[in-house]
Amino acid sequence: MSKGRSPEPLDFFIWTVEDVGLWLEEINLGSYRQVFEENGVNGEYLESLSMFTTEQILRFIRRCHMKWGDFITLCKELRRIKVACLKGEQEVRKPWWAPSCLSVVFVRLAKRNRQSRVVSMKLEP
């Protein structure tokens, strides 16, 4: 992800630690950015939150020094992104890292495979 540019929601599960930090700023949880970076929280880790046990969730909250309300906000925002991906509401942009000759192919494939990319995500409240 290029510096200062908001991460692409469609691809949140491949976000880097820096992308997660930018997203936290975007959802008004920027005060946790440094602690998330220190703990290496990336998109793959955020995706796995929905499969955490209660004990793992409590450990995460303690390690990141999160307030319950902020953790709930984090979960709601993650759920919002997942639902938007499933409904096909996320805009697909060419990836910043792809050479221009491949980015058109990527966007076409992403649009076609949008639902298959997120089908394994749990959406239970």
Question: Which descriptors would you attach to this protein?
Answer:
125 residues; SAM/pointed_sf; 2 domains; DNA polymerase, domain 1; SAM domain-containing protein; SAM; globular; mainly alpha; 56% helix
Please provide a brief summary of the model:
With 125 residues, the protein is an all-alpha fold.
Radius of gyration: 15 Å
Q: Write the H/E string, N to C.
A: HHHHHHH
The N- to C-terminal Cα distance equals 29 Å
Spell out the CATH superfamily of the largest domain. Answer: Transcription Factor, Ets-1
Please identify the top-level CATH class of the largest domain: Mainly Alpha
What fraction of residues sit in β-strands? under 5%
Overall number of domains: 2
| Mean pLDDT value | 75
CATH topology-level fold name of the largest domain: DNA polymerase, domain 1
Helix count equals: 7
CATH architecture of the largest domain: Orthogonal Bundle
Number of DSSP strands?
Answer: 0
The structure class reads mainly alpha
Overall shape: globular
> How can the largest sheet be summarized?
none
Low-confidence stretches are 114-125
Helix content: 55-70%
Domain SAM: 15-50
Organism: Musa balbisiana (Banana)
Protein name: SAM domain-containing protein
InterPro entries: SAM, SAM/pointed_sf
Helix/strand layout:
Layout: H1 17-26, H2 33-38, H3 43-48, H4 54-63, H5 68-87, H6 100-112, H7 114-118
Describe the protein's architecture and organization:
The chain has 125 residues and is an all-alpha fold. The chain has two domains: 90 residues, Transcription Factor, Ets-1 (DNA polymerase, domain 1); 34 residues. The protein contains seven helices and no strands. It is globular and about 40 Å long. InterPro entries: SAM (IPR001660), SAM/pointed_sf (IPR013761).
